[in-house]
Amino acid sequence: MVKFFIERPKFAIVLSILMTLMGVLSIINMPVGQYPDVAPPSVNVFTNYRGANAQVVNDTVASVIEKQVNGVEGMQYMRSNSSNDGSYSLDITFEVGFDADRAATLVQNRVNAAMPLLPDEVKRGGVFVEKVSPSMLMILTLQSPNGTHDGLTLSNYASSNVKERLARLGGVSKVELLGEKEYAMRIWVKPERLDALDITPSEVIAAVVDQNAVRAAGTVGAEPVVGNNAWQYTVNVRGRLAGEKEFGDIRLRTDADGTIIHLKDVADIELGANQYMADAYINNADSIGLAVYQDPSANAMEVARLVKETMTEFEQSFPDDMTWATPYDSTLFIDVSLYNVYETLIIAVLLVTLVTYVFLQTWQATLIPAIAIPVSLIGTFAVMDMLGSTINTISLFGLVLAIGVVVDAAIVVIENVERLLHESDKPVKECVIDAMAEVTGPCVASAAVLLAVFGPTLAMPGMTGILYSEFGIAISISVVISTIVALTLTPALCVLLMHRGMKPPAFLQGFNRGFDRLTAGFSSTVSFLIRKLVVSAGIFALMLAGLTFLGKTLPSGFLPDEDQGAFFATVQLPEGASLQRTREEMSLLAAQIQQDPAVDLVMTVPGYDLLNSSTNSSVGMVVVSLKHWDQRKTAELHQDAVLAKVQAAIDALPDGGGFAFSMPAIPALGMVNGFEVVLKDDGGKGPEELNRVLQETLAKASEKPEIAAAFSTFSVTTPNLYLDIDEERASLMGVDFGDIVNTINSHFGGVYINDYTLDSRNYMVMLQARADSRQSADDLSGLYVRSASGEAIRVSNLVEASIVYKPTSLLRYNVSGSAVINGVPAAGVTSGDAIKAMEAVLSELPQGYNFEWTGLTLEQNKAGNATVIAFSLALIFTYLFLVAQYESWLTPVSILLTVPSALIGIFAAVKLTGGDINLYTQIAMILLIGMASRNAILIVEFAKLLREERGYSVFDAAITAAKLRFRALLMTAFSFILGVAPLMIANSAGAQAQKAIGFAAFGGMLTATVIGTLLVPVFFYVFQTLREKFHRQPSETATVASIPSELVTENVTIDTTTDNVK
């Protein structure tokens, strides 16, 4: 088959061109993302119980729905939030890989079963079930640079125009307004005027309902008619009122003297907002935020592109003095980090080509692998596309590391062709045919070893399995394609480009002389180590001891923390603090953050609790958008440094506190980078007792040096005004209990009466007391309610007010009442060590309380076991493959004993760089199992040939094989090492991931080459001797006592790339 391509080189070239073109087309069309689709599917259940507090929602809605949903097929965990505003939200997280549509259907069925048991108010409003992405894709803002438009105007423009348009885009699942204030016709009643005119709020509401209504008046001349009727008319009367003036003219009462009391006599009327629970600011200027969430099945990069294109187009029709900005865009980090990896890939190809030229020393020989590299890498994308993979950092890292591997097969062919051209007088084509007959087997076997290493990773379950398999697929495909290229294109190009008489340039003669001296020193060292097995055993023992020590002391992690170009903060004032106080504190904070030279935009949303996705007057959200990475090259401009300064600024707030935090490496698994654990009240002892245990736990956690901060938004100390209504007295006075509650609500909370139409859109008409009349409980004295006899009764005579403390929201996790604890590791401490420290604290929980890790932390804990399994399977599969290849149980041991030489380099690199054993270093470990084994095979296979077919002694075979394979080994090693060098000096988006895998791969290959190459001949000598001791070989009768003198001369003809001695 190989001869076919040698005879028809143009066919081989066309085949490679087709593979390359298919790869290019796949690159254009393949989805792009930071990671493969590893986020677990999530389904959200949402409803609202208007007028209910958190406890009522928890008891009547949460407990009912969650009892039915609990244990639904594929569920990992579920968590819910019941808030004082009556809202209820339940998020059910499923196993990674579970079908999202099926998950939504299963949850919908369970919710349907719970519907008959829910309160009527909830059933009327509806319970909504949808599959969602739990993290924000991006946040957009609208602002008015010159202050022409206030927050209310911006909010309504966003609501009625921008939000609706974005929600229609493919891949967008939800658009949420941050700081939303929708238009409403506000009726601000004056209690003192109502008192003076003897009018109650209920009477005002009744008048508005009566006079702001759409009524049908029928039709004149409609069938049936009497006699002839030529015309038919629809009767029209005045419907809804058209503005503040018409609302002001609503008649409340006509006195006996003909005096008409209008609404404007007892209230101020304006076009205001339907609620004033949160604001939004960008750099302390009025704004409105739009949080865009993607559909779980959509590609983030594509959705973000559509959103930005739509906004750019929409901007042309914006009103004057209105612009938009993007304070948070999760895809910007992905885009820049992928660009950096592409750049690294190109640099790595150039460096590997340079190394190839230095060793092969002719441009013709160098050009062939230089062509083979892009064909192999680009062709890989075509197969990845067929398998449903995406272009992401994991797969691209696989290709970067594969560069040194894919070039090796081509080099094996070229070296063998060069040797035969020098040894024989045959035509070039015949030499190439002979060379391919010798190397085809080793090339295929070499590729099979790497496939054996990565094969087990392709079947691993869960998130870690997906990440491992994505890397394994990229490496495996590139190795297979590079082998195909080596057996098709490379021999064809050898026929076209190579000829006798190719001489290296003069400037490389010095390199050759130095390399000869290095080879001689290497041979002497190997000879010494074989003769002094005690020394070799000591070196190996020291290496194992170092591995053991480093393995126990190196910290563990999951994914490295990155400078993502933006981070968040939550500001917490004392419980019950007014929105005005929160707004003032956050304004001070934003002004200070803006002064940092690394900061681009600061978005603040007073009144919005990011971690609970709910409104709270004493909490605020901050989004800090940093300048581009190219403008932040120094350490003081790095995200970590800016975040620390923001945290210091928060701590220095005169009336508040809070926490600044970066997003986790996988945003779909939470909001806070660090660890996340749920404290569960399995004993059902109630929120107050749970809070006590929570505070004790947080206090203990703060004493741990591994934990910089541990915090929770759970609180039961929010002050509430409790009104104890004397129902018996009210009944005696003829006052209905419901009228009392409605009157109080209309005064303090606001009552939705009916609707008002503006620009073809309906908005609320709301009644509430004027701001200066609802500042304290004393304002109850100005409220009146009408008795059955028509008498106005002062409300304060029927109620007694007191301050109580209640939670603003109640959380449940897997049915139990709970509180979420987020933690940030101390500087220089990995997430794994912080988790261990927190686990020690949680082990002391009192009876009736338990804990569960959740989000990214849960996946990190799962990954620990998966790594051990992956590593073990890689070793087992490699061993079994080698047993099958060599028909020996002992020979493969001499190959696998070189694996520790790679691991010690990885561990040492991690230790010296202050890193941790994370996903990227683990991937490097699995790859280096294959690379170390591959290098050892080059020596062992040739040594076996010398021993079994040429009759060399075990000692001589080991030394000769090591010496003659030395150049090929170093070329592969230098190609690999320089291929990963660009990763080690990364200094932009995604730099930490690049450094983690770069340093690990560099260190592992360096020690595998320096130490492993020295020890492989020793291991071969030991295990071949043992093998022959127990299984006598026929070749023993032909054993040669020493190396023939001709083998150490320059004229020796030994193929260093195959199993043949000439």
UniProtKB/TrEMBL annotation:
UniProt keyword terms in alphabetical order: Cell inner membrane, Cell membrane, Membrane, Transmembrane, Transmembrane helix, Transport
An example Gene Ontology biological process: response to toxic substance
Species in which this protein is naturally found: Photobacterium sanguinicancri
GO cellular component assignments: plasma membrane
InterPro entries: AcrB_DN_DC_subdom, Acrflvin-R, MdtF-like
Protein known as: Efflux pump membrane transporter
Family: Belongs to the resistance-nodulation-cell division (RND) (TC 2.A.6) family.
Recorded topology in the membrane: Multi-pass membrane protein
Gene Ontology molecular function: any one: efflux transmembrane transporter activity
Residues that span the membrane, as ranges: 12-32, 339-360, 367-388, 394-414, 435-459, 471-498, 533-551, 863-882, 889-910, 922-943, 964-985, 997-1023
Main location: membrane
Cellular compartments annotated: Cell inner membrane
Pfam (any one): ACR_tran
